[in-house]
Amino acid sequence: MARMVQVAVAGDVTEAEQLEEILRNAGIDAELEASDEADVVNVLVPESDLEDAKDAIEALTEPDEPIVDA
C-alpha cells in the first residue's frame, strides 16, 4: 500500500470533503484524517500523487480560499 502524506489541512469536515471530492474527480485517491486540533481535518493522498494533488486543488479552488500545504 502506498504511503499516505498530507496534502492539505481543512478547517472543518465540509471543507475536507470538498477537497476530497476535487481529488477524486482528478483521479487521485484521498483519505480524511481527524487532527489533534479541534475541527481540523487532514487531507491525505498517496505520496506518489502529492504534486498532482496540489495542482488539482490549486486549479479547482477559488484564489481567495486559503489552502494550507503540508
Give the secondary structure arrangement, pairings included.
Blueprint: E1 4-10, H1 13-25, E2 31-34, E3 41-46, H2 50-59
What's the quick description here?
The chain is 33% helix and 24% strand.
Describe this structure in words.
It is built from 2 helices and 3 strands; from the N terminus they run E-H-E-E-H. It is of the alpha+beta class. It has a single domain (4-59), classed as Alpha-Beta Plaits (2-Layer Sandwich). Strands 1-3-2 form a 3-stranded antiparallel sheet. Strand 2 (31-34) and strand 3 form a beta hairpin. The longest helix has 13 residues, at 13-25.
Keyword list:
single chain; 70 residues; alpha+beta; Alpha-Beta Plaits; 2 helices; 3 strands; globular
Number of separate strands:
3
What name does CATH use for the topology?
Alpha-Beta Plaits
Mean pLDDT, rounded to whole units?
88
Given the structure, what is the number of helices? 2
Spatial strand order of the main sheet: 1-3-2
* Pattern of helices and strands: EHEEH
User: Which CATH C-level class is it?
Assistant: Alpha Beta
